[in-house]
Fold this protein.
Amino acid sequence: MRRGAGRPTKWLKTVIGCIVVGLYLIPVYWMVVTSLKPEGDIFAVPPQVVPFHPQWTSYFTVLQDPAIRRAFLNSVIISLGTTAFTLCFATPAAYALARLKLRIAGLTILILLVSQMLPTINLAVPLFVIFSRLSLVNTYTALILANTVFALPLAITILRPLFLHLPRELEDAAKVDGCTQAGAFWRVILPLVRPGLLTVGTVAFVLTWGELVFGLTLTTNENMQPITVALSNLVGLYGTRWNDMMAVSTATALPIIVIFVALQKYIVSGLSAGAVKE
Amino acid sequence: MPISSLEQQGAPVATRRSQRTGTRKQRGNGFLLPALLFIAFMTVYPLAYNIWLAVHGTDIGNLLRGSSPFVGFDNFRTLADDQAFRHALLISLVFTAGALFLQFTLGFALALFFSQPFPGNRTLRALLLLGWLLPIVVSANVWRWLLDGSYGLFNAFLLATGLIDRPAFWLTDQHAALTAVILANAWVGVPFNMVLLLAGLQGISPSLYEAAMIDGAGMWERFRFITLPQVRAVALTVLLLSFVYTFKVFDLIFVLTQGGPVDATTTLPVYTYQLTFTSFAFSKGAAAATVLLLISLSLSGLYVWTIRREEAS
């Protein structure tokens, strides 16, 4: 939209924008602020918008709980595992779908697009049965494989256009210089799509870190639960210990916030890649 | 070195074969094969197995042995007669429609606002996306606290402004819970709608607006006769996509209300989960899951068809 707006109205829009975004982020602010309050202050009427006695006590309390520490560790392993797995499978596949005229390419792309939209519960039940038969319930393997189901199609969807945009002459030139096809892919093509790989990596990590349904259904042992499941179990356990509850929530959100601040442009382009156009 | 690295990626056989015979196609299949096998075993097979479960009489006793009797459409008939299933379907539709309405309207308003240039536009827009990226379990937990009947911030605000005169127990009151869940879902969904709609708005050629301004069109007329018709196709795809993603929402409701109070927020995904993992009615659960799958697939199909048609034109 073009409008003949002068400087003052421009800044007015900035002010409005700040108010809108500020209102939107109240829940995030409230989460952090509550986690810093002593128990008595959470129930103050009217609510303390700025904490009177900020303290880290809740964080010490919850992080002393070995079950919560274990859940964080599980989430790190599952998320990193899924990220690695996704990159290994998605990169060559996306390259093949971009470069080679395969008869099954059209169908594959269609399946990839649709499988991103499947309800998780539709996969969780049969995967639970399959993994039970293979004695894989309560293993990282099961959770990594299950999470890859959603990360992989998205990853291929993000990467394929990047390969499409690379000129074919690059590989030809590499081959003239004595590279094999695999060598050309590894030494010439991959470095060129490094930002795309970073996008895929972050997106896979963010998706897996927040995943609940697979964690809930594919683990029965508390030791194997990701932090999302542990957090949802605290609902009954903590009752009205909202400060402790918000401390765990903030700690769970923290890796995502850090990634968001550091790699924001990579994630957003990635997560919306599947949406507008394939 | 490159070859061994590729081997770790699971494409060794075809890579070597292609060096011998050298046809493009085999090479491509070798690159694609690991991903295809993964999808076949981890997505297609489970979905098919789900349908198999739905037409068999599987219970906790014979689940792992896999020797359950074929029962045809019996499970679907039981489901159709089940009041709880029909209720879940209705709740799902109300939840999706309500959330979609809020997400889309607010997302569109924000997209219009952010399509104008002003200082700090990018940064502010990026900050909005945080609500979308946070783990749903975290957002749901925060909303549980915000919507708390006795000490929640939301009630404090409503009471202070006089919008309500008595605290509302959003999540435990049977008449308020669905509204509360819709509200929380809209908070998560607004940025997603905004991003996609903004992309649509930015795709409109500025020359259209310039021409309209020369013709003396006002702000409203430009919006009505340029923005709306130009953004219509994108809006349709955003609505379809939002529908698919909202209809399958499980984690948010699971944390906020567990489907309660009673069954006030039991949507189809929550109902399916309860049948399977709480009542262990595997086959009935699989039948419910199949219905959920069919609804999701038909809308994803419609979405794919829409974007394909758009790309073709």
